[in-house]
Amino acid sequence: MFYKIVSNGEIIDVADGLTYCFFQTKNGIWLCCDDGSRADGIVSSDGSAIYQLETARYDAGLKVVKVVEIDEGTYNEFREKLIESGVITDIVPEPELEDPAADDQEPVAKSALMIRVEKLEAKLDYLSMMDGIELPDEDEEE
Question: How far apart, in whole angstroms, are the C-alpha atoms of residue 42 and residue 32?
């Protein structure tokens, strides 16, 4: 499998396989691991650096990256460009709309939290009206 390594919108590396690693806090060292689900980072393609994954359990102060799978042709193209220039601006293609009428979306249902807030506001309004208390309007400046 082939991957592009992206950091801050730039392709900084490409790899033909990933070497996962995690930080062992007990000894303060990076160790290789086979399981990507417990990995905090990956080793660069030339083995000279460790990149911290976006999903890392803590901030190690390293360059934060995301890994995206690519095909072999794209890998070869990016590798040549990286050798020439060092980094490549990552161009993320815009998602295409399947149907132009897809812009006419139905309104999203209110979340349970929003429904609860609205009910509590209604109760507060009712109680303040019953006690004759006027609450300041949030939108008004004092």
Answer: 9
